[in-house]
Task: structure prediction
Amino acid sequence: MAINMEPAGSRTTGKVRLHPTQNEALLFEKSAPGKRAYKLPPLDVPAADAATLLGEAHRKTAAALPELSEIEIIRHFTRLSTWNYAIDLGMYPLGSCTMKYNPRVNEFVSRIEGLAEAHPYRPESHAQGVLEIIDLLQRCLLEITGMDAITLQPAAGAHGEFTGILLVRAWHESQGNPRRRILIPDSAHGTNPATAAICGYTVENLKSNADGGIDLDALARQVDGETAALMLTNPSTLGVFENQIHKIADILHEKGALLYMDGANMNALVGKVRPGDFGVDVMHLNLHKTFSTPHGGGGPGSGPVACKAFLEPFLPTPVLVRKAGNNGLSELHWEYDRPQSVGRVRAFYGNTGMFIRALAYILANGPDGLRQTTEDAVLNANYIRKKLEDLYELPYKTPSMHEVVFSDKRQLVHGVKTGDIAKRLIDYGFHPYTVSFPLIVHGALMIEPTESESLEELDLFIEAMRAIAREVEETPELVKTAPHSTRVSRLDEVQAARKPVLRWRPAE
Ligand SMILES: *Cc1c(COP(=O)(O)O)cnc(C)c1O
Result:
């Protein structure tokens, strides 16, 4: 990996020559009238006038679309793609996000013609192959989670939470009272309180104890007949395993409340323990995290929801069921007639291309491979922890699982914050870690290497982090003004979020 150690001042002295691809104009600015990326043969039918054909629907002035040749378009987008950071370029140490490698076998399998071109509205009898894939993935995920029933419909983790809490609500309603509150620990992912609120619940905060876990006595005091559920991330966003989880489940169940597990961090658990075995009633998984399907701009997400049998009647429709076919063989079939269902949460049956990739990942690894993956992910996080704990403050001494959380306490003495260190990391060729999250750690540096990284890559990352810690002591200004090697340095993040410029307008 290229490490750019360019001295900080060079940009301002004007000595830096930007590579031409770093000064890319917009397609609109490159446009020249009459350029085309295609050539059509002469018409062999009479020309028709669009305005006559479309009438009122025809636009009065031509759209200001850019006009370019094919190679100009290709070069434009290829250049832009080189400015991007991607998991295929280097380590992506974002914590809580499990930015792991997307194995090529997944892509190969998902592009098989019969799968890639299957129409979602094909009759069931013609879709038995892809339904078998969906069914097998469901069974694998049930085995991994130890749960009884599952839906693959939700399109993301947050969407899975929404679906899961709808199940909780529907079940409580069937018992006569939807209840009013959902408990959420202060270490929770921000999507958890958002989910509870959008499902009509009041969010009640639960304080973590000194180890970063749930305080059982506080929990017992807070749970009552109006508590619908506790939403718990396990391992938590501190990378800490909630080792009292079975007791937490007992406390909730005694008062008729349910345990929701945010399973986005299952990368630390797969093949080792099963949430269904430690009292979880309903949970979601992130295929785009734990199961190696593309994440972020790389592709649509998928957030399956698995639950215990008593919640199964409420699952979104349709549900995949196996029935005996005419020829004596079993057939898969979508069941719609489910009177207690919360209804559909996604068109078709979710993002099928992601199911194929996730299943390819599961089958390519096999049970032992998945367990090994978990062990490697945890080992990698702990390796980083050991190699950095002399320089960066560890707010929680509890053993780390798949991610390690430091704080900027020691760097703050020199006026350097977690965000500055993260930006300096860009100059060393790495994507920043997760900055200032979880909120209960002031100035958090949250690092999740995943199992994808080799020892060599981990060592490079550790060297970069150690070099930055030295810079913080010797030349803090260098860190505070980073990055120095990028096309633009510090952006006005507030302006960018509050007043984004989303539309190009031609110059007057
Ligand atoms: C990523 C994540 C989510 C949300 O998942 P999305 O797919 O981004 O909606 C929820 N909880 C935790 C703990 C996460 O890490």
